[in-house]
Design a protein that fits this description.
Blueprint: E1 2-4, E2 13-15, E3 21-25, H1 31-40, H2 42-45, H3 52-55, H4 59-67, E4 68-70, E5 75-81, E6 84-95, E7 98-105, H5 114-128, E8 134-140, H6 144-152, E9 156-161, E10 164-170, E11 180-190, E12 196-203, E13 206-210, E14 212-215, H7 222-234, E15 241-248, E16 251-255, E17 258-270, H8 283-288, E18 291-295, H9 297-302, E19 306-307, H10 312-322, E20 329-331
Parallel strand pairs: 7-8, 11-17, 13-19, 15-20
Antiparallel strand pairs: 1-4, 2-3, 3-5, 5-6, 6-7, 8-10, 9-10, 11-14, 12-13, 12-18, 15-17, 16-17
Family: Belongs to the Nudix hydrolase family.
Protein name: GNAT family N-acetyltransferase
GO molecular function: acyltransferase activity
């Protein structure tokens, strides 16, 4: 859940160890300046996986994001040097008192200690003000500068997974393993009768339902992953996606006994009434998935089972009534 703020209060401001460099909360009023800075650094920012959403989004979506103040404790800071915006630092709340840090700095200002000073101030803010149990980060193997900054701030190496190196700064006993980033694509598959296909699982005595899809393979786009997962999980090919309609806020979940930070994108696809073929399930899916069915909107609204994402009945009703939105709608897990 979020509320909106127009920026008239200026947002939080945090000093750093560098003269004239401060962290000031990014708000809707900063959207134009931030979009300009991002455009000037598009290739530079593209080297960091944390900012794929920014690079692939239009200015309107970015402005919409900055106008929403997350109620989960996440915060977005702009790096301001002498009043000018030169970068960004995010503290992303992914679980109770756990934060992931992500940042980028205008390429013209790299190599001057600004990234270290800004990240140090943000980490201190997380521990001293927000009561963080830990702050963690995941950097791609090629991002040596990012790893060096984290080392200077006292982050401990916490392993490697896929293309990522994991780091953690705990305030007291570590609350758990560092989650592995898991970008994922999901498909809202709607048939000719307006029914939505969902798969089921069961955990702690509760049945939950979710749409087709899964994690990206190395080198895949979200769209490619969505179509591959659809083929593997339903046997359907030749399906056309109508574009990304929802974007999930990050959340920590366990998959195959490993903690992951899920970053999900949802796509809409329509198909005729059909039967699906789940013979393409892998071993983990066969063990985890307990069933599947097509749901009407009325059935979704009436069920006591857990539906993913949160608020699915209302989200789907709006999507089918109004069509795909101009930009992705943020949803909770």
């Amino acid at each position: 859940m979020t509320h909106r703020r127009d920026g008239s209060d200026g947002g939080a401001c945090i000093p750093t160890s560098e003269p004239d460099l401060v962290l000031r909360e990014l708000l809707a009023a900063d959207a134009g300046e931030y979009v300009g800075l991002l455009a000037a650094n598009r290739e530079h920012v593209g080297r960091y996986a944390d900012w794929d959403d920014e690079r692939s989004s239009d200015p309107g979506w970015i402005g919409q994001q900055l106008a929403e103040v997350p109620s989960d404790g996440s915060v977005r800071f702009g790096l301001r040097l002498g009043g000018s915006l030169v970068g960004r630092v995010d503290l992303i709340a992914t679980a109770a008192s756990r934060y992931r840090i992500a940042y980028w700095l205008d390429e013209r200002h790299t190599g001057r200690g600004f990234a270290t000073a800004a990240a140090r101030a943000a980490v201190a803010h997380a521990g001293d003000v927000r009561g963080a149990r830990d702050v963690y980060a995941a950097v791609t193997g090629a991002n040596r500068r990012g790893a060096a900054v984290l080392g200077r701030l006292g982050f401990a190496a916490a392993g490697e997974a896929r293309e990522y190196r994991l780091f953690q700064r705990a305030f007291g006993p570590p609350p758990g393993a560092v989650p592995v980033p898991r970008p994922a694509a999901r498909v809202l598959l709607v048939d000719g009768e307006g029914r939505l296909l969902l798969f089921s699982g069961r955990r702690d005595g509760t049945t939950y339902w979710y749409s087709a899809g899964g994690g990206l393979e190395p080198g895949e786009s979200h769209e490619q992953a969505a179509l591959r997962e659809l083929r593997e999980e339903t046997g359907l090919t030749g399906v056309r996606l109508s574009g990304e309609v929802w974007r999930g806020r990050p959340v920590i979940a366990r998959w195959g006994g490993v903690a992951h930070e899920l970053r999900q994108r949802y796509f809409l696809a329509r198909v005729p009434v059909c039967e699906i073929d789940t013979s393409g399930f892998d071993e983990l899916e066969r063990a985890r998935v307990t069933g599947h069915r097509w749901w009407t909107q009325q059935e979704l609204a009436a069920t006591a089972d857990v539906l993913r994402p949160a608020g699915l009945p209302g989200l789907l009703a709006r999507l089918l009534a109004e069509g795909p939105p101009a930009r992705p709608v943020l949803v909770d897990a």
